Amino acid sequence: MYEVTARFVAGRLLQVVPTVLAIVIIGFLLTHLAPGDPVLALAGEHGDAAYYAFMRERFGLDQSLPRQLAIYLQQVASGDLGFS
Q1: What was the pLDDT predicted at 1?
Q2: What is the residue extent of each domain of the chain?
Q3: I need a labelling partner for 83 at 20 to 30 A (CA). Which of 6, 32, 43, 47 fits?
């Protein structure tokens, strides 16, 4: 009886990994599909091009989308969820 329960629990725990990964990726993609520019939202609309470039570099928005996703997954795995 305990062997069946242990296999069931182990199977369920293995299902958690792809489910959480899918949720994290979907959340990442939804934030990137949202309308508007996050740099303009953070820095305001009255900055100059050099400041906007600095902000994009600081937050990694100058990287390609797959690279941003890789960095995001690495940060989530290490527990770094950013600023609130």
Answers
A1: 65
A2: 21-84
A3: 47
